[in-house]
Design a protein that fits this description.
The chain has helices spanning about 25, 65-90, 120-135, 140-145, 155-160, 165-175, and strands spanning about 5, 10-15, 15-20, 40, 45-50, 110-115, 145-150, 160-165. The protein is α/β, with parallel strands linked by helices. The protein has one domain (about 5-175). The protein is globular, with a radius of gyration of 16 Å.
């Protein structure tokens, strides 16, 4: 059976994955450091994946919603940046943490930040992405040149990041 990581009510494919949020490195750091759920390699793409059940609707003009929206954007950006730093600290050997068995990196990768919001409208996702990009520090954009995607569960299934149901997991396991 295929390995899965369940986050925010979604079952993610855990092939070639470093579950950074559950790593000893992250859990021992305590408050002040944030993490995405996991890091996954697909071909030459290094994906930092954050999952959310919900996210403030960018189309709701109320001041309370907008404040919540901006706070979530900052939170997501922090998670991407902190996770990139944590991952890099393992890669260069400045920590005692090691990647899990089977986790391999190609020689050269493209950095990709992905936010998956389970029940979000596709049009709302399109409005979140530019806000995340503009909120990332310029040094991150200049040095790492990350691609940024905000998708819902439906698109995550199409992009083969998540399974649609337990049936999909069983079917994939039988094909392996």
């Amino acid at each position: 059976m295929a390995e899965i990581i369940t986050e925010s009510g979604m079952d993610f494919i855990a092939e070639n994955t470093f579950h950074i949020e559950k790593s000893r490195l992250y859990t021992n750091l305590g408050e002040g450091i944030r993490s995405v759920e996991f890091v996954r390699v697909i071909k030459e793409k290094l994906l930092f994946i954050e999952a959310k059940r919900s996210f403030p609707n960018p189309d709701n003009p109320s001041s309370e919603n907008y404040e919540n929206f901006l706070a979530e954007i900052i939170n997501i950006c922090d998670k991407f940046i902190h996770s990139l730093n944590l991952f890099s600290s393992v890669k260069v050997g400045t920590t005692d943490e090691v990647f899990t068995d089977g986790f391999t990196l190609p020689e050269k990768v493209t950095l990709v930040f992905i936010l998956v919001v389970k029940n979000h409208e596709t049009s709302w996702c399109r409005k979140i992405k530019p806000k995340i990009i503009s909120s990332l520090p310029s040094y991150i954009k200049k040095i790492w040149k990350p691609e940024v995607y905000v998708i819902n569960h439906e698109i995550a299934i199409k992009r083969q990041l998540t399974f649609s149901s337990l049936v999909d997991i069983i079917d994939k396991g039988e094909r392996s």
